Amino acid sequence: MKSRYPIDKGYFPYNRFAASSSLWLINLARAFMKVPRFFKKAKGLNVEKISINGYKEEKFDLYILSKKDLKANAPALLFFHGGGFLYEGTTSHYKLAIKYANECDCKVIYVKYNLAPKYPFPYPQEEAYIALDYVIKHADELGIDPSKLGFTGDSAGATLSVSSLLLAKQRGLEVKALFHLLVYPWLDGKMDSDSMKKFTDTPLWNANLTKKSKHYTNPEGLTFSTEYVSPIESPDLSFMPPCYIEIAEFDCLHDDGLAYKKRLDELGIEAQLIENKGAMHGYDSKYSYHKVQKLWDRRVAYIQEKFAAK
Asked: Does the reported pTM lie above 0.90?
């Protein structure tokens, strides 16, 4: 696939292909997307796997990462991986979770939620909320300070970061969130932004794939409230914590991040936005590229600052 967009060549080979909308190929890819040994046995970290009951009693896993010398009553970062609600986390997700655990003096809660098409909406959203509820209600045994919570996710994982907070507010679960950190977030379920109309065939992910994914994530065409599928349309975002947002220049979801920052700005909520020029959606996949490493370091600094301020 030769891109017609001037994407930075440093993202090769990820700037040369897009994900598949074929269910057969999605399932084939997922067969190889196992939790890697380097994650489960991360050097210098304690990694604990906990299986909990999810939506309609389906089990899903939480991986709790922490430095071996981390003090008790530590802050916690809930980590929701992206993948269009169809794909498991990739190497970049696991490496980033390890980096956060090593450098941010917090416990990282990696949420391995159930995926479409077997588990369509609202499984991912409900399980993101269930994970949050579990962390708060089991904070003592997890060694977590529930007054120091952060949220992060990329793409569909960003949807879950925001939707979990919205559902918690709706259901009366008290959440003491210090920040949410969103990377190329998927927040606008209307899918009618200028960037969605413009970037129909960009590498890795694009508008065509976004729209096709609905056949798997919502096969029956059910109607969901904004908390589930279009967080940016939620009538009340006034309780949201400060936010860090990264967007990619050549991304169908580019405008989702812009619009979300605009809403937070209007509410007087601190929000900072970084546009990664020359990049496409999913640029974290090229985690070895110095531009990505610089952004990862910037995220770490943001998390450190927010956890230290409390």
From this structure: yes
